[in-house]
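To illustrate the input format used throughout this study, we show a single complete record. The first block contains the structure-token representation of the backbone; no residue identities are included at this stage. The design step must infer an amino acid for every position from geometry alone.
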């Protein structure tokens, strides 16, 4: 069984959806510390030809685990978020293409868990791209360890014989340790596709919402098929 492990990003990019789609199980890594000013509570869309952030305000004192991060009480953040989304992707907004995302935002209240919001949106996006990989939260497994050890322990707990790692895994995974435990590590390198963004130079690495808003549903799954797998 091949598993991949990744934190619950907000509005995940195409590369994460592709990695999840290439795995048999996605372990949502929500039992590690929240990383401020990263992709856990924000992501980018294209506005006037330039990337612009969509951000969910959060309450997360230093060291807070991702599973415990809460949406902050911040007046008007949802209105500003919706406004920027509509400005960035006006045609999709008019056609109701982003309605599931907007409904998730409307249901969100101060004090709600950020991870719950992120996974609700991720489920919608994965469905749009025809990815049905099951997921489990690391916080539900009660597995300990740090960095490479934690990843290895999660693999063992789920009976995985293959771990699908992102490119950064080359920097911290103890490959020999995985081999000793009968786990093959494969590195996933996403080959970012291009598509029509309405003119100008193509901007990669945006939230996958950009593609959902601009393309037909039939055109979405092929965007996830370009990647390389390599063994350390």
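Output of the design step:
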């Amino acid at each position: 069984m091949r598993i991949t492990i990744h934190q619950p990003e907000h509005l995940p990019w195409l590369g994460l959806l592709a990695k999840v789609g290439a795995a048999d199980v996605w372990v949502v890594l929500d039992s590690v510390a929240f990383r401020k000013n990263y992709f856990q509570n924000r992501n980018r869309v294209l506005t006037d030809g330039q990337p612009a952030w969509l951000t969910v305000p959060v309450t997360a004192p230093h060291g807070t685990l991702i599973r415990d991060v809460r949406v902050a009480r911040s007046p008007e953040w949802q209105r500003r978020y919706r406004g920027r989304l509509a400005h960035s992707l006006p045609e999709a907004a008019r056609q109701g293409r982003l309605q599931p995302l907007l409904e998730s935002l409307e249901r969100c209240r101060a004090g709600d868990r950020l991870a719950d919001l992120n996974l609700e949106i991720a489920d919608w996006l994965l469905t749009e791209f025809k990815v049905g990989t099951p997921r489990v939260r690391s916080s539900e497994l009660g597995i300990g360890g740090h960095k490479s050890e934690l990843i290895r322990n999660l693999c063992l707990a789920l009976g995985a014989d293959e771990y699908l790692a992102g490119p950064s895994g080359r920097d911290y995974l103890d490959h020999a340790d995985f081999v000793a435990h009968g786990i093959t590590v494969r590195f996933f390198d996403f080959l970012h596709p291009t598509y029509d963004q309405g003119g100008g130079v193509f901007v990669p690495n945006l939230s996958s919402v950009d593609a959902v808003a601009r393309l037909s549903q039939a055109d979405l799954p092929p965007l996830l098929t370009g990647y390389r797998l390599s063994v350390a």
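Structural context for interpreting the output: Residues 61 and 69 are 9 Å apart (CA to CA). The chain has one domain: 2-231.
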